Amino acid sequence: MFLRRPETLTELAQLRLKTVRPHCPVLDSLTRHVRAFAVMLTDRQGERLPDWLDAVRQDDLPSLHTLAAGIDRDLDAVIVGLSLPWSYGVVEGHVNRIELLKRQMFGGAGF
What we know:
The protein is mainly alpha-helical. It has helices at residues 11-20, 25-42, 49-58, 62-73, 75-83, 89-105.
């Protein structure tokens, strides 16, 4: 429920979420942050990432603090990755396939 776009949720799921969020501030904060990050990701708004990181750090959400610390280690690359339309997905797929073949050839893929 928290990871999907609000407009794609069923009416029952929307009602449940609307009922639960006011009673659980942690869940409400988590939902807001996850949805804001999803918008940055889908709309290529990498320039908003520093503000998002600051907002995450202001809330008491240890799991998101860990994510924020990881993003901080390579902030410039993450901003570029969230901003530009290019992807290394195809290249990574080929690398993964080659590594699988190498493991099979050298016996690393067995149990």
